[in-house]
Amino acid sequence: MSAKHWIQALCVVGLAVLICAPRGGAQAAGQLNLMPYPASVEMGSGEFRVESSFSVAQTGHTDAQLDRAVQRFLRQLSRQTAIPSFGSAPTVSKVALVIHTDAASKEVQELGEDESYVLEVASGGVKLNAPTTLGAMHGLQTLLQLVAVGSDGFAAPAVTIRDTPRFPWRGLMIDVSRHFVPLDVLKRNIDGMEAVKMNVFHWHLSENQGFRIESKKFPKLHEMGSDNMFYTQDEARDLIAYAKDRGIRVVPEFDMPGHNTAWFVGYPELASGPGPYGIERRWGIFDPAMDPTNEKLYKFLDELIAEMAKLFPDHYFHIGGDEVNGKQWDANPKIQEFMKSHNLKNNEALQAYFSARVQKLVTKHGKAVVGWDEVFIPGVPKDIVIQSWRGQASLAQAASQGYHGILSNGYYLDLGWSTARHYAVDPMGGAAANLTPEQQKLILGGESCMWSEYVNPENIDSRIWPRNAAIAERLWSAQSVTDVASMYTRMHVVSERLDLLGLTHQKSYRPMLQRIAGPASPEEFAALRTLADVVEPVKDYAREQLAATEPTSATPLNRVVDAVPLESDTARRFSELVDKFVAATCHDADGEARLRRQFVLWRDNDARLEPLAQRSFLVKEVAQTSQDLSALGAAGLAALDFIAKGGGAPNSWKAEQTAAMQQIQKPKAQLLLMPADAVQKLVDAAAGGGTCAAKN
Amino acid sequence: MSAKHWIQALCVVGLAVLICAPRGGAQAAGQLNLMPYPASVEMGSGEFRVESSFSVAQTGHTDAQLDRAVQRFLRQLSRQTAIPSFGSAPTVSKVALVIHTDAASKEVQELGEDESYVLEVASGGVKLNAPTTLGAMHGLQTLLQLVAVGSDGFAAPAVTIRDTPRFPWRGLMIDVSRHFVPLDVLKRNIDGMEAVKMNVFHWHLSENQGFRIESKKFPKLHEMGSDNMFYTQDEARDLIAYAKDRGIRVVPEFDMPGHNTAWFVGYPELASGPGPYGIERRWGIFDPAMDPTNEKLYKFLDELIAEMAKLFPDHYFHIGGDEVNGKQWDANPKIQEFMKSHNLKNNEALQAYFSARVQKLVTKHGKAVVGWDEVFIPGVPKDIVIQSWRGQASLAQAASQGYHGILSNGYYLDLGWSTARHYAVDPMGGAAANLTPEQQKLILGGESCMWSEYVNPENIDSRIWPRNAAIAERLWSAQSVTDVASMYTRMHVVSERLDLLGLTHQKSYRPMLQRIAGPASPEEFAALRTLADVVEPVKDYAREQLAATEPTSATPLNRVVDAVPLESDTARRFSELVDKFVAATCHDADGEARLRRQFVLWRDNDARLEPLAQRSFLVKEVAQTSQDLSALGAAGLAALDFIAKGGGAPNSWKAEQTAAMQQIQKPKAQLLLMPADAVQKLVDAAAGGGTCAAKN
């Protein structure tokens, strides 16, 4: 506790702005490529070389969990360096890394355990000290991030790092119901979570589209409600142990009383409307809901929660509670009767009645409830945790009444936001900023959410990573760590490491494009890649709105919109280049040359792609976008020509280009052509009206 | 039998050159992207569309092996199309694919089973007929290769294919001893073998550097001779079943009496020289060899062969026999004494004595021997198979005496030859061409060999694939299928499919380069990639000769030479472009423009890469090669300038360039800069002496 408080003091009190904010160092471009960035970093001089003689010793408390973590560390160090094995070389003279740990993590990992560590890297060796196994494991991950190729070999820069998380609840939720996510895919994502120091895996196990966990008590839940795609209890135990080994708690979610059509396939008597029910194949909010007036429902839930509370050891148990549209309740006279007789004025009151009863069941079985905003109702027990999909205001409201909360609004990975936008969302932002320090402590952290309408094992990693690393930093690092350029630089490096760790967010892109291209010449394929590199899927929920036919779980996810990353690196860099060029009042010869090369490539790209569009319906779908990209290239070149002549493009030209740009900016094939905004800036500059004024 | 003979007749008798050679079709560039190319292809009209309603029915013989093959087929079809599942759509009106099989494959798959099939694709459906499960499985692989994205959806062109292999033994050997190869890596390579219709996995299980299979009888073999990297017998059985399911026999090799230092670590008494022995860490040929005069050795081998013959069900058992240097025999007076008393005139005779005895043991345990050339000694049983690492002459010699043989000379994947060079090697080439038809039948096929001095799980796939697909074609397809351009085109497509199947030959390239680069800007990384794309590792055994320090099994395989493919696609295409340009007597404006773009990129590349060379020792190693590439770019541009002016570059210029080129062509960092030869052609053309003469 004392070490933790001392470290927090360093950063929170602002004692040392210089050593808390990302700053210069031996690694790469003047900054350590760490993510999340540690609480305190003091650079030393020299570096520690990683050789095949590298070996590890432990002092203080040791346990099997830490031993396995050390073995994992060595395996990953081997992957990073391609040194086949460590510590077996005949020249081992002294121990390279000494880990000192004071105590074990709790047998069932708990919220709020000390996760701090101190890592000292010197040319002669590395020391890692931590009060708990959890801290030691985090320190090992930091050390892995420090090791990179250097001018004489693989090395970590000399540095002293004192680190502890800002928030104790740093989670990732994965919806395994809308699309089933196989166990190995979950495991590699848990590996990724460990690498960025997240500590809660929220397993969204049931939905209208699937009940994904074996119930021995009520086997029709998974047998009839999962298309035979579910986890056995043994598999769940395996995953829980896997996560625990990596310092990650597993919180299961059983969403109630809505979002559960799949339950009703086997147990229609639980629903508020007459059956029979089939597994839902579409996306959205649907009418079926549990019947809160049915006493048999509570008996059922009592037994199910008893079973699941035993399977999932974590203290927290998520009961969902979101998005009940109430239609089945309105249409059921028996329910209406019940509401009247129990003085329940509306559906919110009915849901509150249901929530209160379910919360009692959860408490009875020794657990504390987590639920979405809707479960926050007067009189709920104080150990409930509100997960806010609605926003910081609702979180602040709960905190002001003494309730714990975690933020998910702003961290929905499926909405396709830029990393910068997620990164700007802080659990202490908005209304939470006005809370008292005491109330602020009730905000435990946050969770990113991967809703799975449009993911499968092939593209799910690219929807989560690398952006999730920036959210992990938001939840771990000081609130003052907000530099976006630094974030992108470091995230880029972490992204490569996650790739080596086994995640497929980078690896799966090319094969998916190959499927779209079919047999293609290298030039044709390069043209597809050039186009794909600068588009992004439409944002928020626009994909449903723009769908030609209603998407379902049977829809192939084989289109360009499914293959491209949710954030285009190329477009982001291009946009930065344009901003820099314009900020230099268009007097940047090198920038101009680079822009010209880019525009020529784009202008000529459609002609190269056109043969493929003839052969592949998946390329044909983006033919208009390809033409738009060529138009962007031509417009950009024309703008540069005007600028080179001192600006003064005619208003008619500007109007024409702007009108064209508005067409180009419209989503097509559910894609956005990202460089359009930046090209518009050049068009404006060419017309001499503003941005290049100093020159013109 | 009759179907098979009939199909062979079609091609061998030359009845139908048009339908046997690769030819026009609906797929891509006028040719079906099949590899190995089938014996007979008759194009139909239209195409068969693959929808989610796709379903499969079986008639005739059915069995569990075929059921599993169909499930695998459907999974792969799902990967190729991203259609989540087949046959469950409500619109299933009729069966899409009907498989008719006459009979099962043998319970233990045998050499020479009928592997033929007939595949008829029409717009209304697909029929697959085969005399055995093996043929049906091959037909399914062909169908997978036919399906590609089309203008309206995923489809296979209408076609009738009658197919059967040219050779019954089409193998891949993997050396799992010099570097251990984990089971999952073997499995994905066996998946690849199935995709290209290879049918023998030759498992090189023991070597100086490791004894890799658990022996319950002699546990010190794997316990002391493997660094704890071995396969349990359960794992071996698992792999054998996995291979059998894919129509692939597993032939184990226990190399004797040399190449077995690792055996002697636990059992030094088997050796011809005094112990103790340690696991060998270096590469090469070493002195330790079994003592053929020791009766206890034969008792040991009797029991070991008994154990392994039971574990490995295949009829064939490989006893190695290669490369005994005889030094331990020469130095052992007891052995010299024995040779004298048994009238064994030299070491060859002693080895023949040993071989004869081991062959009797193998026969006693119900197996037939396979061995390298050296085991072919007078009087060996007729069911022995000679595997020739020495060449076709030695194979022809064996055949002329009535012995079976398979060719591996020319198919050593580790030597880094171009695919075209491997492809040109035919088991019936060289001396074998002069055999009588009866003798030719004794040549059963061939095996590609992956010796593992320089491979690990990260790069082994890229050493085997895609080149192995071309060797598979050589062993399956008609001898007349030799068009190199067609081969490269089809191999490129198959390579992408293998990637989707789970092989990592493409996927692992980028992460390996990332490790070399370390944290790098996109421009720096692109520069490294540009250089890496045009180099190849030195050929044959030059890597050992050029090594600064002796490589061992502890040497990290993290250098550019370990990361780049063994054949540079970019360099090959560049070379083709230069040849085309020069053949057009340098009057090819488009070609000239493309060459100029390429040269400018190369010329400017070193400046972009230079900062990385400062930061990474693995980039620094290729700094000279990078400068050489820039020099090539500059020389190429200068040559094009002369050519544009009608040639006539001064002799002094030509001499200077040629001298520079000779320096550039020298290996550096164990790499060859591949475009140098083609640039030299342009230098020659610029000097007006020849190639561009028609213009000048």
Low-pLDDT segments of chain A: 1-30
Q: What is the approximate shape of chain A?
A: globular
Structural class of chain A: alpha/beta
Give the number of DSSP strands of chain A: 19
Assembly type of the chains comes to homodimer
The proportion of strand residues of chain A reads 5-15%
How far is it from the N-terminal to the C-terminal residue of chain A, by CA?
A: 62 Å
Mean pLDDT of chain A: 93
- The neighbouring-strand order within the major sheet of chain A is 8-9-12-13-14-15-16-17
Largest interface: A-B, 53 and 52 residues
Number of helices of chain A: 28
Largest sheet of chain A: 8 strands, parallel, barrel
Which radius of gyration of chain A do the C-alpha atoms yield? 27 Å
Estimate the helix proportion of chain A, in percent. 40-55%
Structure, explained:
Two copies of one chain form a homodimer. Chain A has 696 residues and is of the alpha/beta class. Chain A is built from 28 helices and 19 strands. In chain A, the strands form four sheets. Chain A has an eight-stranded parallel beta barrel, surrounded by five helices. In chain A, helix 5 runs parallel beside helix 7 (233-245) and helix 24 (589-615) runs antiparallel to helix 26 (623-644). Residues 1-30 of chain A have low confidence and may be disordered. Chains A and B meet through strand 6, helix 18, helix 19 and helix 25 of A and strand 6, helix 18, helix 19 and helix 26 of B.
Briefly, what is this?
2 copies of one chain form a homodimer. The first copy, chain A, is α/β, with parallel strands linked by helices.
